[in-house]
Each structure stands twice: as C-alpha cells, then as structure tokens.
Design goal:
The complex is a heterodimer of chains A (88) and B (154). By secondary structure, chain A is α+β, with helices and mostly antiparallel strands. Chain A has two helices and six strands. In chain A, strands 2-1-6-4 form a four-stranded mixed sheet. In chain B, helix 2 packs antiparallel against helix 3. The radius of gyration of chain B is 16 Å and the shape is globular. Classes of the chains: A alpha+beta (88), B alpha+beta (154). The interface between A and B is medium-sized, with 29 and 36 residues.
Chain lengths: 88, 154
C-alpha cells in the first residue's frame, strides 16, 4: 500500500520524474507522523538531501484544505506536499 | 481555473491579465472608489538581473484559499464591495503583469485597505510559488511563508 505525493514549488526540482511520487504506507498515520517519515525517507527516495529546515516548514493539503498535524492520512490517498509560499 | 459570484471574480491560470477587462467588471454605480493593483515581473533583484519568473500553484487549493480570503466577514467590509483577483501561472518575462487585485467599494479607505490586505494574505496563505531565472543562467525557488496553522488552534 502507498500514498501519492503531489510535488510543487521547490520539490519539483528534486523530483526524478514527474510531479508525483509514491510513498510506502501500510497503515493510517497522522500528518505529523507523515512529516517525520518524509524527513527520514525523502532524501533516499529523491537521491539527495533536502535544504536544512525545509521539511519542517512543509504543509500538507488536498484540493479543498490545508491539513492539520492531527489529520489522518490513509493508504491510497493523494496528498500535496506544500513548501512555504510566495505568491503575488 | 476560475470562480465567480455576484461580487467576486477569482482566476488562477496561464491566461494573460487584461486590466481594461478588469476595470469594466469592477465598475459599479454603488461604488465610489476603485483600486486596482498590478503586480509586475521586475527585471532585477537587488543583486542580479532577472530573465523571467516561473509561477507554480496547486490550483484547486489556491482557489479555495482565495475564496476564504475574500469571503464576507473577512477582508470585505461593505456587502456591495466588488473584488477581482487574477494570478498568472507559467513563465513570465519582466514587464509582464503576474497579479491583479481589483477592489471597488463605496468609500476609498475600504478599497485601499482591502486591496492591500488581499495581497498580504495571498503572500502568506495561497499555495503559489515562484522560481526566478537570472540573466547569469541560474535559477532559484524563492523561499516564502510556511502555510497553515498545524494545530488548528487560534
């Protein structure tokens, strides 16, 4: 089982191919746990280190809302990885 | 992608921004003041020449966040106030309009205040990112504001 992560902004530069990647996930976890899991696993998946502090500032969302740390992520879901924003 | 109701027009897309079209939409006999802000790609930062800026967005969520910003009871004061926000996506050259914020209100103070507040909130709350490409050939995703209130508290 896995989840799909949609990549935006600076994460597009780190993606090996496309704007999505899959992350193995066997059971439901919280957004806070997902962030911690990605801090551990993302450098290995992408084949490079992330800039210091970036993952700590990342938010997660879907097409309707930004997720709270206590929200749950289940296998099969698609979640957007949202780095700090700078529109306008 | 766009969303509209009687007093609001929001668009996030690669389509060109036409200020005259926005002015016509913002015209109302109920409103004595119209403020239109145009954000334009500059040709330089403080240290480098800029060749262009690539704008990226999570469009469905960006539109949802824009709706929250301009919803009644938030920045909008008078119910007759008209708000139009357009944000471009894709690669834009210097001199190109990337952002339009138009506000028509009964009074000028509200029009100025609302336009500025919308811009400030876009910079903090809407999932849009930009990557500057410089004349020396380098590129940089600009570091912005972390999104969201992770705990859900006030």
């Amino acid at each position: 089982m896995s989840i799909k992560l949609q990549l935006f902004g600076v994460f597009r530069s780190y993606a090996v191919r496309g704007a999505e990647l899959e992350l193995e996930l066997s059971a439901e976890i919280s957004v806070k746990e997902l962030r911690a899991k990605l801090m551990q696993e993302l450098p290995g998946i992408l084949g490079r280190e992330m800039p210091a502090g970036l993952m700590n500032d990342v938010a997660f969302g879907n097409e309707k809302q930004i997720l709270l740390d206590t929200d749950k992520v289940q296998p099969g879901m698609t979640v957007a990885l949202l780095p700090p924003v700078c529109g306008g | 992608m766009e969303w509209t109701d009687e007093t609001t027009y929001l668009r996030i897309s690669s389509a060109e921004i036409h200020a005259a079209q926005a002015s016509a939409w913002l015209a109302s006999a109920k409103c004595g003041a119209t403020v239109t802000f145009l954000g334009t790609v500059r040709d330089a930062t403080s240290t480098k020449g800029v060749k262009g800026i690539f704008y990226d967005a999570f469009v469905p969520l960006a539109l949802e966040e824009l709706k929250k910003i301009v919803a009644a009871g938030t920045v909008r004061g008078s119910p007759t106030t008209l708000i139009r926000v357009e944000h471009r996506l894709g690669y834009l050259h210097p001199g190109t309009v990337s952002t339009l914020i138009g506000v028509s209100s009964p009074q000028r103070a509200e029009a100025f205040r609302v336009a500025q507040e919308i811009l400030e909130q876009i910079k903090r709350k809407v999932p849009i990112w930009k990557q500057e490409e410089y004349t020396d050939g380098t590129k940089l995703w600009l570091r912005g504001q972390p999104l969201g209130n992770r705990s859900g508290g006030g």
